[in-house]
Fold these 4 entries.
Entry 1:
Amino acid sequence: MKSTIVLAQLSPLSDIEENVKKAEAAVREACSGQQADMIVFPESFMIRIPEHSGIRSENDFAQRLDGLFVQAMRKLAEQYGIWMVFGMRERPDDSMLPQGDQEGTGRVFNTTVLLDSRGKIVSVYRKTHLYDAFGFRESDQYLAGDSLFTPVDTPFGKIAVFVCYELRFPEIARRMALEGAQIILVPAAWYQGPSKKEQFQMLARTRALENTVFLLACNQCGGGTTGGSLAADPMGRIMAEAGEGEQLLTIHVDTGQISEARRRLPCLEQRHPELYGCVFGDRAEN
């Protein structure tokens, strides 16, 4: 199956309504000329929190899935007839809070939403592996989700999603591939630091190659993030890569290439999970 997927590498603002306007402009451009099938926005695209905000004031910006931001994005998807992926701060219902957060610690979910071309919410993923690394503690602000994304059938292939820091966990991408994912989408807010941009590219290409899938990573730009959104094919080759600034990166995906890649490189079928002592989508016998 062939499709056109646009990675909207944008710099979110500290105003939700303005970010909806940025989204609309990006969708309009993506759908002009050759109709895009899907547009992917970065992690936490809903809002960039002003500097020096405390956790409570930061998470005051969070909304529920029936809030104004998601509803506005749903209208865009329906209006333009395009599938959409975007990140947000999701305010949890009390029933979603783990023991201990009932006290009102103010943490929210780092959530990614998948919409179809009618504006229907197809899937919601709450980031499970939080960025507690390089001196940063995402878990101070966010609650961790309790389940990985289940790959979704779409008109242009089976799609899976995970977020940013989760590129560093090969088990996640392997699980997705074993569950049939052909295209893995990675919304990100990958921050600058020594060799960080190179690591982003290296990890994205490696996750694509070792699973013989397409991997498309859409990063934020500005505000200390690196940009450099990219797409890697099932042999780990870079199909397209963005610079450091705002950019719409158009990717033409043909999932038919996966079978040829796996014929040449049959590493998935040559696995011996009974030797590994761990679970990668199918349970080892012990």
Note: The radius of gyration is 18 Å.
Entry 2:
Amino acid sequence: MKDRLVKAIACDGRIRILACTTTNLCEVARQDHELWPTSAAALGRVLSMGCMMGSMLKSEKEKVTIQINGGGPIGTIMVDAYANGTVRGFVGDPHIHMTYNDTGKLAVGTAVGTDGYLKIIKDLNMKNDFTGQVALQSGEIGDDFAYYFTVSEQTPSAVSVGVLVDTDNSIKSAGGILIQMMPDATEEDIALAEKAVSELRPVSSLVMEGKNANELASDLFEDVQILEEREISFKCDCSKDRFMGALSTLDLQDLKEMKEEDHGCEITCQFCSKQYHFTEEELQCIMEFKQSCGK
């Protein structure tokens, strides 16, 4: 079953709901980066949030970038999300496996840490990007995004993101739910939302039991109206041409050393771990191009 995301409303539009199943795309990320369980859970939660935030973009040219660094052993988590339903991302250390002693659950909060920030950069195809940043609250990701939406975007929100990792390290289930109060929400609406959140079971458990994105949203309130449903996936738009452009920004001396000492170079994309090899001849072409441009 392909991963899907739905946009919905409840209480006559005064509550906005986004829900997604992300098991497959989290598994693609796990395989691409050879992630260990806690790294997989942390990145998977942020990928789920990326899918939901990407769906809020209005144009195919827009992009939202999520950066998280809490000073923990996992290092930086970075995710790019696009309006077309694709996401990509990576973690600083893919080989983290930590659990909480009392519960045995994956210790995402400890791995991420709380001595740092959650930063959102929205490229809205305008002169300046929108940037919002908040201090991390728990490192568990869901709480941190709820705090971000409430403080930085003044939209009271509840967030549930979860990733269940199987005994063979594969992703068993993953998904996310975002509930947001609109400006015209009443006290009764808020009470209904609080009740729904208090009764909400872990989203990864719901997905494992077979709930699809539509059901994740529809089960929250009695009057849920599904507005849109779409496929989502892990996809990187890297290419050899793009990395060739990056190489062309290097100094001629650096390119010459790569050519003469290393006899070429190999570049690995951080977002998907795909490798691109450049031969001596290709490096020579880049050098000649730079010289022809007077660079």
Note: The two ends are 51 Å apart (CA to CA).
Entry 3:
Amino acid sequence: MTTFSLCVYCGSRPGRDPVFAQSARDTGALIGSRGWELVYGGGKVGLMGMVADATLAAGGTVYGVIPQNLMDKEVGHTGLTELHVVDNMHTRKTMMFERADAFVALPGGIGTFEELFEIWTWHQLGVHRKPFGLLNIAGYYDSLIAMLDGMVAQGFLSPAVRALLLVETQAEPLLQRLADAVA
């Protein structure tokens, strides 16, 4: 593998706790300092913009994909290595999927959840074998993790499929686990 491409899903808002913003910046700095490529939704706002800016500042490349309707609302990041403006969300997610070697979700809203669960579902269905993880900053995803474990306990999710989701509370060990899973 020449360059490791990590797709980051995260909020288009910064969240209330400053630890979320710091985590996005730390994640971007790690991606950039390792010479990796960030693949993300192309926004300049919220955690999305923070992770992109930190990746660029640390010397990494950033590949963004944003739908035209969001570009029209002036939320697109025009300072990226590469920015693709596409017609719709389906094209956006497909391009991000194709470019990425692995996926990670930072804190975010329903869009972040949807993207993570789609990648997870595609893996379960055999569409891909790329690793994916969840960065559980300040317990943000504790209730989701408990719900997933409850799904296993109730027989709606197999332990093997549950184990596919790599979870860490700090960016560095999670990013390393994802890179190791691809190598």
Note: Residues 71 and 85 are 7 Å apart (CA to CA).
Entry 4:
Amino acid sequence: MRRVVVTGMGGVTALGNDWQSIRGQFAAGRTSVRRMEAWERFPGVNTRLGAPVEGFSVEDRYPRKALRTMGKVAKFGLFAAERALGDAGLIGEKIVTSGRLGVAFGSSFGSPDAVLGFFELRNAGASKNLNATSYIRMMSHTALVNIGLFFGITGRLIPTSSACTSARQAIGFAYEAIRLNRADVMVAGGAEELDITDAAVFDTLFATSTRNDRPETSPRPFDRDRDGLVIGEGAAALVLEEREHACARGAHILAELVGFATNSDGNHVTQPRAETMQLALQLALDDAELPPEAIGFVNGHGTATEWGDIAESVATAAVLGPRVPIHSLKGHFGHSLGACGAIEAWLGIEMMREGLFWPTANLEQIDERCAALDYVTGTARALQIDFLMSNNFAFGGINTSLIFRRI
């Protein structure tokens, strides 16, 4: 099998669009969760908390013709992909349009605003908001398609829309495409835009935080006093490249992707199953040909939902044992759904390269029902590790795990 390395990374998040900015926010103890005043007009939704990206605009960055088919989720995705390709030194290179570079990109949904024209048509029989680009902006693979069109990519496009594992599966499937010689380079990641409909989905399940007057204290992954998740937004992309191809062009290698696994619970749409989560983690170790003790840190999913946190911790402890350090970044960014797997992989690699892992925000009293693990709390932890495991789990019982090696 061919080896796969990471040669570029980039993204847009609610705490900044580059590692130094985000790291500065971590160091200052800030999170991105805000009270969403615009949601006051939705009395049927209990939560008022979100983690928005503020001040983001690409109207002067990209041509108007290109932007016509993009809602916010596609703009996020294109921005992240451009940043990652630029970081890899591939903007304008022949490989981009050669057919040997592809894209794997995911999101839970497209842009919700684009649905309104179809809704008006269905209800009123006509719609003044419906146009030729409405469906392109609405479809779940809108970010993927717009990235491919913008850069003139003629290689394979792999859409992934699996809720919270969308970006993680995109990275994993891109890795497999390179290993199997279907591509030499893949841009892989995910994007999501924050909308009241996202919050309402989880609100109907009583899974959202309602600490509406104390946004800085929520969400609280793995914490005894958690009361639910907070929805966020953003995007991130990794450039994955066949190792010899990267070396031949003198690329700066940031990490090596050595293991990937995904499976499903086959049990329940919304209730996770620790046994199959555990199997996914073990399968990733098997793919990487590593023993459990090789994993130096776990970038966990940790959404601050009761059964999700418990099941994930039980699965992690069963495979890796109680010694392994673990954190969740969702205390800082909220749950960015289809984007979280890419954002967390990007920032996890940055932390591994720096040797400093930031704690789970708001984790103060570990829930005694969570398994015994080395939860990183309070302050950043200095660690020199060789292998990072990064995990995500989604509705439908979809489980994913990636393993990165420090270079």
Note: DSSP finds 13 helices and 16 strands in the chain.
